[in-house]
Amino acid sequence: MALPPDPPPESFVASRESIDDILTPTVERSLVPVPSEPEPEPGPLDDPRRSDVDEWGRSEHMRELARRIYEPLYSKWFRAEWEGLENIPTEGGALLVANHAAALPSDAPVIMHGIETELHRPVYGLADQLFRTVPVVNVFWSRLGGVVGHPDNAYRLLREQDQLVLVFPEGSKGPGKTVNQRYQLRRFGRGGFVEIAMRAGVPIVPIAVVGAEESMPILWKSNTIAKALGMPYFPVTANHVVFGPLLGNIAYLPAKFKLKVLDPVYFDVPADQDRYSRSRVMDESESIRTRIQDALYDMVRERRSVWFG
Amino acid sequence: MSGRRVLITGLASFWGGLVAQALEDDPGVDVIIGLDTREPSVELERTEYVRTDENYSILARIVRAAQIDTIVHTFLIVDSTSMRPKTMHEINVIGTMNLFAAASAPGSTVRDVVVKSSSYVYGASKADPQWFTEESPRSFPPRTRVEQSLEGVEGYVRDFAEDNPHVNVTLLRFSNVLGPDIVTPISRALELPMVPSIFGFDPRVQFVHEDDVVRSILFVLHRHLPGIYNVAGDGLLPWTEVARICGKVTAPMPPVFTGMASKPLRRVGVPLPDELLDLLRYGRGIDNRRLKAAGFRYEYTSAGAVEAFVEALRLRNTLGDSTPAYHYERDVEQFFRHSPAVVRDANGEH
Questions:
Q1: Which of A48, A135, A151 sits opposite B201 (nearest CB)?
Q2: With an 8 Å Cβ cutoff, is B136 touching chain A?
Q3: Which CATH number fits the domain that encloses residue A244?
Q4: For B4-338, which CATH superfamily applies?
Q5: Which value does ipTM take for this structure?
Q6: What is the pLDDT of residues B198-219, one digit of tens each?
Q7: Which pTM value belongs to this model?
Q8: Degrees (nearest 5) of the Cα angle A232, A234, A236?
């Protein structure tokens, strides 16, 4: 049974408000329905965060603190000196590729700190998942800018977030060299870094680093102990001899750092492909490796002193 | 056009009950049938409850008899502490298998299937990407029972979708749920005076509010949206920050033999299953952009879900549990629904 229609609502004639109030239609009081506003774009959601840790696990607060602590090591101890910084793009994603050295690699912080202070662009360091498994270390590593070297992470950073990403294609084989093999580049993995750059549509910027090798050179290493401990290598370094078995694990020798940024490599291939020609990837990988190797030979040839450059 | 005829599995589960309640308000839904092994735990107006055994042997008959066109499969156990592994396997794997067998029987009228899965299918390990997309594979094969069973479930979902291209199959993978009402191993852990953590690890975790879970299920039902979707609030929070939002500090367990160290927590009613210990070590982020791109709007971020949980917890601690427990009384329900003696008005309300 249909109900009779509602009686019309009473008008506002008898109200005491000023005429302006009556003429200004509001939702509550107008007789003619005010045309409803188009659905407003919802504002940002309430997000009661209590820390500044971002989606990558970085904390600007801790990074600022670390920069201040690290600065003297960078400028006074290693006396890092850059060449060709203009080759690093000031905007857009780019994959930075460098040689890797020292038992406890000293090159990653130098490169990251250097670019962040000189160019004011953050650098995301891709690293082995091993870092993620060590208690305490994993938290600091990730708060300070370390990211697990997963292709999805690299793609997201480079393609979607236009960031600078640092990778060492030698992996742990670079730092695991003994001192007599220094400045001889290892295999550049399986060329995965080239594929990532192609897929993300970003250039590769090769960097040659001199000095890291001498900051913590490996005199002798034991594969048996390394295997037993699940470590990539188990070194005895010159630092152990100089600083003792405890301090020697973290104290660097004051080797002079020289870093040379080489010309960026652009790939004229479409981004976002599932596969790229394996031969092309390996050729590019090998040519980048050769360029860094040649630059290293030149820099070592010109170097007068390990400690004074 | 007549309305939809919906079958909900796990009517007595937290999600089944909420989804049924929400669908009752939808005039576009004609029939709601809920299956479960236990009686419903929430008050329902017009949902028909059918008791089954845990692997739905009578399902094909119900689907045929009631001309079901939509199945909402919420009866998947993701809390491995709530039952024995064997029962969980029966419910998750065998139950899903029988459900899809019934739904794909010849002459089946089923056109939409929504399955509520979990982000546990991605696992949590050292080799994981920061964000899992719907296409990301797991880094390592599943190790725990619940992950194995969910992988089995998703296998059946994929097979069903492949064999029945005319059916809209939606697979929703939910992140860890928090909210005012739901009880999970994580919510129990956050209720402790100190929040358990693993020494030297501060993983990033993600949450989804229970309202967003129900809303997302209704959203895909309304849109007939096929595909796989991650459902999770925006943002990843370090576990210590989760504790801080709860106003608590963390109590670290040793990083080695963590499973053994967490055993005493069982005594106080907070068992930490292996998949949760993995999460407390490595964390997990799932990319929620695909569902957003389809038009879904979240009402809570990850941090917002934690906050909503904490506020409800504070209220509960002050006032006690104020909502009276609902008891399903079969005869009374049957009387109100079917007796000719009950006078119904035009809307079917009594």
A1: A135
A2: yes
A3: 3.40.1130
A4: NAD(P)-binding Rossmann-like Domain (3.40.50.720)
A5: 0.85
A6: 999 999 999 999 999 999 999 9
A7: 0.85
A8: 145
